[in-house]
Amino acid sequence: MKIHVYAKLKDYFQPEFELLETIGNTDELRAVLVKMNGGADELLSSCRFAVEEGFIDKDFKLKAHDTVVIIPPSSGG
Amino acid sequence: MTQSSSYPPAVEAKAISTEPLDIAGLLAGAHHPGAGAVVLFSGEVRNSNKGLAVNFLEYEAYIPLATRLISEIVEEARRKWQLHIAIAQHRVGEVAVGDTAVVVITASAHRSEAYAANRYIIDRIKHEAPIWKCEHYADGSQEWGNNCNCK
């Protein structure tokens, strides 16, 4: 599974990286990421997730070949 | 003597721009014979934040989704307030103090709709579009915005 992160999340992770673990949903993905870098826990809890340019919720079933984009709270404008 | 007016074709602005925003050009394309009001909002880079001097801001976006969301927000406002013109464009990359980071233009028959729609569009873009700013301070430090700080 490919992961892309933006903005402040880049203080904790590479902008793009790959996970080889079996990850079924966004809750599991968040847990894997927190295990990688516990400092990102609070920020990750407020992030949204997207696949194929659309937001997904926690019930979305992730697949191994998905590219998941992790989206921190917006701060544009 | 009758004065004639020419209206340039409405601008089809890209929602996200890597280039400086051409406010004058966008406004020139935002006039419509049925519009008695045109409202332009320009969100510009301040020279200070939290008491610190700011050198510039850097904007980053998840461009495919930001483009789609901004287009949907603009289209929703266009229908809700029956706008003749609705344009929103957000900059990415480095933006200098005093330069425009985001522009929203709305044109409608009367001013109340143009003002309301403009406010609606910018508020939703700031809250919802996956766009982030990083403050680059004069002391060399930098900080990503954590959240929309709309008041």
Question: Which secondary structure elements does this structure contain, and how are they paired or packed?
Answer:
The complex is a heterodimer of chains A (77) and B (151).
Chain A (H helix, E strand, L loop, with lengths): L1 E4 L10 E3 L7 H11 L4 H5 L2 E4 L2 E3 L10 E5 L6
Parallel strand pairs in A: 1-5
Antiparallel strand pairs in A: 1-2, 3-4, 3-5
Chain B lengths: L15 E2 L5 H6 L8 E8 L3 E2 L2 E10 L1 H18 L4 E7 L1 E4 L3 E9 L2 H18 L2 E7 L4 E3 L7
Helix pairs in contact in B: 2-3
Largest sheet of chain A: 5 strands, mixed
How is the CATH topology of chain B named? Aldehyde Oxidoreductase, domain 3
Mean pLDDT of chain B: 91
- This entry's quaternary arrangement is heterodimer
Radius of gyration of chain B: 17 Å
Order of helices and strands of chain B: EHEEEHEEEHEE
Radius of gyration of chain A, in Å, reads 11 Å
Second-tier CATH architecture of chain A: Roll
SSE pattern of chain A: EEHHEEE
Helix content of chain B: 25-40%
Distance between the termini of chain A: 32 Å
Please outline the major beta sheet of chain B: 5 strands, antiparallel
Could you explain how this protein is built, in words?
- The complex is a heterodimer of chains A (77) and B (151).
- Chain A has 77 residues and is α+β, with helices and mostly antiparallel strands.
- Chain A has a single domain, classed as Beta-grasp domain (Ubiquitin-like (UB roll), Roll).
- In chain A, 21% of the residues lie in helices and 25% in strands.
- Chain A has two helices and five strands.
- A five-stranded mixed beta sheet of chain A has the order 2-1-5-3-4, with no helix packed on it.
- The longest helix of chain A is centred in the middle third of the chain and has 11 residues.
- The model of chain A has no long low-confidence stretch (mean pLDDT 95).
- With 151 residues, chain B is α+β, with helices and mostly antiparallel strands.
- Chain B has a single domain, classed as Alpha-Beta Complex (Aldehyde Oxidoreductase, domain 3).
- Chain B has three helices and nine strands, in the order E-H-E-E-E-H-E-E-E-H-E-E.
- In chain B, a hairpin with a 4-residue loop joins strand 8 and strand 9.
- In chain B, helix 2 runs antiparallel to helix 3.
- The longest helix of chain B has 18 residues.
- The radius of gyration of chain B is 17 Å and the shape is elongated.
- The model of chain B has no long low-confidence stretch (mean pLDDT 91).
- At the A-B interface, loops of A face strand 4, helix 2, helix 3 and strand 8 of B.
